[in-house]
Specification:
By secondary structure, the chain is mostly helical. The chain is built from 18 helices and 6 strands. It has a 3-stranded antiparallel β-sheet with strand order 1-2-3. Strands 4-5-6 form a 3-stranded antiparallel β-sheet. Strand 4 and strand 5 form a beta hairpin. Helix 7 runs antiparallel to helix 18, helix 10 packs antiparallel against helix 11 and helix 14 runs parallel beside helix 17. The longest helix has 27 residues. Bound molecules: s-citryldethia Coenzyme A. S-citryldethia Coenzyme A binds next to helix 17.
Length: 447
């Protein structure tokens, strides 16, 4: 959905009486739809009265042209490749901030001062452990279960343990649930990994930073000391920042829709994790690596590009294209910059897999089909390659995406719950089924 430059100017001047007139050429009737302006971006038409006035609903499968809510958290301009959180540009946040500071920004609408930052960090540290009984919950899974299958189950099960943060009408309980989600996701993600490889769980440590603590819980073993590579810590911090929130994407919209029924916050986040798992969404980073491995060698790139263009072939070039960005994904630009430093730091920059990724990126960016459709590499193309270089198994990539995106889901969920105009989400449909017909008893039905 690209922004129309003629609309996406400063809306500070008063537009309170703008309307668009709609005329039904069949009946000759017309109606005026109010235009609503945000602080930035395309204005929207308020269609609340459309059905009452005209008897029509709107039709927009995939909601590509539909605003589902008003929000003040994240702004995207897809045609200009702009992404901002609470007014701060993503590239400045990625290069100058840290993940917990961005969490504070998303949850509290502004960057913390020194005192607020220290208090927030300490609060998060106090909630990183899981209820001891949850370790037995893992035991019900096969060791080769997909990590996302375990994560979605464990997160949903949090509501079975943390009963003092389920009442969404209680502000303190909403805040506690938010803190618990941000604090516990690294612990859950690390335990999901340890369970898969048969190693003992490693407890969180309060003397480590958020990202370092996650790496320690994931890669350290009781038998020896572990020191995270600073280049990996910084790169993972940037990956987490870049994935923190992204407006009303599929998984965030899932969280909002689940939350609109009054479901508890842990159940809503579990719903978001389920939606993120799909290869068209957060599962794309895993799909990128699977695609690069299936490609086997650089000489097969033309074959894969041809398949991606073939309308009769369901194959899509994983990590390319985006529903909103019709310019370069600003997050991909940041990751592309830190990718080389990590590859060099890990000594793998010449490995065939990464050479193949560079060659694929170059070939796609020079291919008319991709250029004409503005299908640029997106955040998942580079995050998958980076995570592999850091030593994460491909099956853990979307788990890390879910870890990072949890703060965005929680911030969007709280914004919706705290909006007095929020109602249960209930889209309509264009019905194309059978019209009314009498019931046919079994003995009269055609065999
Ligand atoms: C994420 O929404 C978000 O914000 C998501 C996300 C977030 O942070 O939450 O940014 C994270 O999900 C990033 C996207 C990760 N997915 C992938 O990398 C999977 C590969 N990408 C495609 O599946 C696709 O690009 C989508 C799903 C991302 C977008 O699908 P759209 O909206 O249908 O794409 P489009 O309308 O821009 O397509 C225009 C044309 C179509 O062809 P034509 O009908 O014009 O001939 O481009 C084609 C599409 O078929 N096309 C592709 C393609 N993506 C679009 N053709 C080949 N390979 C691709 N990857």
């Amino acid at each position: 959905m690209s922004e129309d430059p003629s609309h996406s100017q400063d809306h500070s001047q008063d537009h309170s009486q703008d309307f668009v007139t709609l005329k039904d050429e069949r009946s000759g009737k017309s109606t005026r739809l109010p235009v609503l302006y945000g602080s930035q971006g395309s204005p929207v038409l308020d269609i609340a009265t459309l059905h009452a006035e005209f008897g029509y609903y709107t039709f927009d499968p995939g909601y590509g042209a539909t605003g589902s809510c008003a929000s003040a958290i994240t702004f995207i301009n897809g045609s200009e490749g702009v992404l901002m959180h609470r007014g701060y540009d993503i590239s400045e946040l990625a290069e100058q901030s840290d993940y917990l500071e961005v969490c504070y920004l998303l949850l509290n609408a502004d960057l913390p001062n020194k005192t607020q930052k220290d208090e927030f960090f300490q609060t998060i540290r106090n909630h990183t452990m899981l209820h001891d009984q949850m370790q037995y919950f893992f035991r019900g899974f096969r060791r080769d279960a997909h990590p996302m299958a375990i994560m979605v189950a464990v997160v949903g099960a949090l509501s079975a343990f943390y009963h003092d943060s389920l009442d969404i009408q209680d502000e303190e309980q909403r805040k506690l649930a938010s803190i618990r989600m941000v604090a516990k996701m690294p612990t859950i993600a690390a335990q999901v990994y340890k369970y898969a490889i048969g190693q003992p769980f490693v407890s969180p440590r309060n003397d480590l930073g958020y990202v370092e603590n996650f790496l320690n819980m994931t890669f350290s073993v009781p038998a020896e000391a572990y020191h995270a590579d600073p280049a990996v810590v910084r790169a993972l911090e940037q990956i987490f920042i870049l994935h923190a929130d992204h407006e009303q994407n599929a998984s965030t919209s899932t969280v909002r829709l689940a939350g609109s029924s009054g479901a508890n916050p842990f159940a809503c986040i579990a719903a978001g994790i389920s939606s993120l798992w799909g290869p068209a969404h957060g599962g794309a980073n895993e799909a990128v690596l699977n695609m690069l491995e299936d490609m086997e060698e650089t000489s097969r790139i033309p074959e894969f590009l041809a398949r991606a263009k073939d309308k009769d072939d369901p194959f899509r070039l994983m990590g390319f294209g985006h529903r909103v960005y019709k310019n370069y994904d600003p997050r991909a630009a940041v990751l592309r910059k830190c990718l080389e430093s990590v590859l060099i730091s890990k000594g793998v920059e010449r490995e065939p897999l990464f050479e193949r990724a560079r060659a694929l990126e170059k070939a796609a960016l020079e291919d008319a089909y991709f250029v004409e459709r503005k299908l640029f590499p997106n955040v998942d193309f580079y995050s998958g390659i980076l995570l592999r270089a850091m030593g994460f198994p491909t099956s853990m990539f979307t788990v890390l995406f879910a870890l990072a995106r949890t703060v965005g889901w929680v911030a969007q969920w709280r914004e919706m719950v705290e909006d007095p105009s929020s109602r249960i989400g209930r889209p309509r449909q264009l019905y194309r089924g059978r019209t009314k017909r009498p019931f046919v008893p079994l003995e009269q039905r055609k065999s």
